[in-house]
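Hey team,

Filing this mostly as a record. A colleague (T.K.) asked me to run one chain through the structure pipeline before their review meeting, and I want the input and output archived in the tracker in case anyone asks later how it was produced. No errors, nothing strange. Just documentation.

Input sequence:
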Amino acid sequence: MGLTRKSAQSISKRMCFETTERPDSVLRLLREHGFTNSQISKIVEGRPQVLLAQPEKTLLPKFEFLRSIGVSRSGLSIIFNRNPVLLSRSIERYLIPLHEILKSVLVSDEKVVKALKRMGRILCLYCFPKNLSLLRGLGVSQSSISYLVAQSPSLMFQKVGKFAERVNKKMEFYRRLGLSEDEIRSIFRKHPNCMCLSEKKVMATMDFLVCKMGWQPAAVVRIPNVLCYSLERRIKPRCSVVRVLLLKGLIKADVYLSSVLRPSEKLFLERL
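Output structure:
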């Protein structure tokens, strides 16, 4: 069938084929649509039953549907490699509703395609509206929700209880940092991706900005997207520049956090 020995051995332990005609036709279709051997091996190791699919009847229509919304040939392999279970899902009952759900928030097919390429396993397709309602109940704006869906699409498809638990745990974590309820809600409203950050990452960033640099927690709350910036590659290098300028008396001590961290690298350097 053209698989690696490891893949063939893994599949042979779980499945038995009378002939290789069907598996060969599946593999041929995947290769014709740009899937590499390593991608195919990963897919069939995780979902060996795909080798029993009727390629022209069940696989090809999925490829054609995704191509119709703008997925490129290389994009197909990325999407199914990240989420091989989609190969066994119904177009009418799954792929089309998935597309409609994403488009209802992201608006354009171009953004939907980008989200699909980022998406991992989808646990609960119809949990999305309930999770969406939870965020709206917190006052998260439509633009912020769109950003969250675009950047972390799988998050919104978690089971409702798990999603709510994640939100509540993050809110409790921010309370332990000494933030008020209004400040926490402000963070989630402005940048809901902050609920995806690890506690270690947030604590390290807050410790540096508040304890080392002297900014108030409220300053961070006003622009919470700074919590997503790399501490080592963006925050510390820029703050080192600020420290030097402060020591030389070239800037005032009350420099705004936003003016240091938010500008692009080019704009930051131009302002020095």
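Quick notes for T.K.: The two ends are 61 Å apart (CA to CA). The chain has a mean pLDDT of 90.
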